[in-house]
């Protein structure tokens, strides 16, 4: 029987190992007309005129907020994503973020960059930096994890290995995920409980109506003085203006996030990264392999393994 040469439109660069999961006779590229499927990473598809020929979408990542999922599901078009495929990458960056906050790494680097004069003069000036940027250590401190999916639970496990106490909250945790959580993770009753108990708070929730501005002025008010807030989830889950106010008031020690924003720009206690959480060779490959496989399986056999 002749094989159908399905067409896949790629909206972002997709790792070669992922593309290799598509049958060889598929036509794949950034400009194919009348595609059967679309592979996308973070390109925004909300304003896109999605061709009527499209039967499935593969999102090489965990979040699907760049895709009009509801509109597509009304058309019977499934959206496959890759939950967990980039969890290790995000976990590593969150641990790095905690260390940045705990040891004041970014302001300390800026301080050294700003030093001038002879080597001797600079060495003398380091004394002031040593005092100003003295930090804290992680063992014994409490990490609050809001959202205990693949990423949140990975981070909880790593933090326990680092000697931290972990308190977590997720109203929608699955039975499987709950079983996988290390027994040392204390389960809180609410977001507020986590905020009251933690020295570091990390967010791992999708951006939904219910999570927009989840961390607002009122909730920041519940946090421990000098806490570090980490947001490697989505920008909209935190109210930037409230964070800046809390940083200026000395209520929060640092805000480490994965998104640039004018409201945060230039703030000495903010570290803002260009959405690097899942940007590793390994994560990009894992996500692409997972979704390309799902997309091909659906187009060839109608199997839905995740949507
Ligand atoms: C995700 O949702 O998995 C990340 O935002 C992935 C990405 O950087 O595209």
UniProtKB/TrEMBL annotation:
EC class (word): oxidoreductase
Keywords: NAD, Oxidoreductase
EC number in record: 1.1.1.399, 1.1.1.95
Transmembrane segments: none
Catalysed reactions, as listed in the record: (2R)-3-phosphoglycerate + NAD(+) = 3-phosphooxypyruvate + NADH + H(+); (R)-2-hydroxyglutarate + NAD(+) = 2-oxoglutarate + NADH + H(+)
Pathway field: Amino-acid biosynthesis; L-serine biosynthesis; L-serine from 3-phospho-D-glycerate: step 1/3
Physiological role: Catalyzes the reversible oxidation of 3-phospho-D-glycerate to 3-phosphonooxypyruvate, the first step of the phosphorylated L-serine biosynthesis pathway. Also catalyzes the reversible oxidation of 2-hydroxyglutarate to 2-oxoglutarate.
Similarity comment: family membership: Belongs to the D-isomer specific 2-hydroxyacid dehydrogenase family.
Protein name: D-3-phosphoglycerate dehydrogenase
Organism: Thiobacillus sedimenti
